[in-house]
Every structure is written in structure tokens, then in C-alpha cells.
């Protein structure tokens, strides 16, 4: 009987842990957490956020949904890498900045601004921009041209190839001395979502609530079975005690 009760306790703990929410990401901004919750909702995964002192916001999902949630966020390029604007990059850190430092900051800032702009294009998941602005010799008549390489990953089902000329034109007009022909653009479609789900898999915003109900039903069943066997054992013990008492009385009378 003790072994049965221990087994029931272990099973109950296992189901409780399966229904608990686990931390998926931490140190997020509230806007990033909201964006990730919306993306997971589109994938049929329930998620929530919680503010953590000194650690921003954390993203929570059901323990059994962690692998699926990670894959769903990766498919849409989340969480996004933090970017800086030109004002943050050119913030004075010392009294005097060297021309080389100012040049590096300018190039990096231009790349960051272009990436932020490309990420605002509908369907773009990931955007990386690398700009090369050579230092020209003021005594030379030969001017080295600037160049840029752009990588864009977009959602499946959206064709950005028609927008390739506009993307190149946007980059060319954002960098001084950069021509359209010196912009290299690589477009890549993201892998399609896996729709092969087993039958009976619940998809939708109520999946988390239904899974909790299922856990509670299983727990109640385990408790009911344990109580049934416990009472059955008590009844057997009482029956044996009663039989033993009757036998003793018959022996005493005889």
C-alpha cells in the first residue's frame, strides 16, 4: 500500500511539473516580450511575460512547449539583436575623439540604421548590412568607391525579389559615395513552418488552459485510484480483524 501511494505522489509531481511555466528568455524589453508573445500566439503557443527586478522582462511558456516555442521564434527571427541609433553611437565618451574613431562610429551607425529600416519592411525577418568606405588619399586623383553588402532573410510565402532594386536603391542613397552597382544584395527565404502535427494536438490561444485542465483531470484520477485502494485495504484489514474476533469467541465458547 505504501508503494502504491509513493507511486501516485511521484506521478502527481511529474504532471504538476509538466504543467508549470518555464522561463524561455530573460533580460527582455517589454516591447520585445510583447512581440514574442504575439509571434507565439500566431504559432498556436500560449505564452506570458513577467517583470523581473534588475533583469527586465522574462518570457514564460508551458514546460512541454519549450522546444516548439524556440523553433517558432527562431523561424521569425526573434528575439531581435539590439541595435543602436546614430545618437547613441556618437555619444561622447571622452573629451576628444580621433578621426579614426569618428569614421568607425559613422560606418557602424549607418549599418545599424539601415538594418533597422530594412527590418520595418513587411516580411523581413533578419537584416544585416556591411558597409566599406575606403580612406582616399587627398593627393591622389584616383578615388576608391564605397561598397556595401546586404543580407535579408524573409518569411516564406512573401516574395521580396521584386523589391530587390528598391532595397539596393535605399542602401545606395543612404551612404555617401556609394553607387547602386556597388551594392551586393542576397535574399533568402526562411524555411517553411512544420505543419505536421499529430492528431489531437491542440492549437490556439486556449491550448494552455486545456492542458491545465487535462493535468487536473489526471491528478484527480490518480487521487481517486489511491483513495479506492486505500479504502479497499482498510476494509480487508477490518474484515480480517472481525473474522479473527469471531474465531476467538467460538474457541472460547467451545
UniProtKB/TrEMBL annotation:
It is a lipid-anchor. Residues 22-186 form the Flagellar M-ring N-terminal domain. GO terms for cellular component: cell outer membrane. InterPro entries: AMP-bd_C_sf (IPR045851), FliF_N_dom (IPR006182), T3SS_SctJ (IPR003282), YscJ/FliF (IPR043427). Residues 1-18 form the signal peptide. The chain crosses the membrane at residues 206-230. Keywords: Cell outer membrane, Lipoprotein, Membrane, Palmitate, Signal, Transmembrane, Transmembrane helix. The keyword Lipoprotein applies. GO terms for biological process: protein secretion. It is found in: Cell outer membrane. Belongs to the YscJ lipoprotein family. PANTHER family: FLAGELLAR M-RING PROTEIN, YOP PROTEINS TRANSLOCATION LIPOPROTEIN J. This is Lipoprotein. It comes from Trinickia soli.
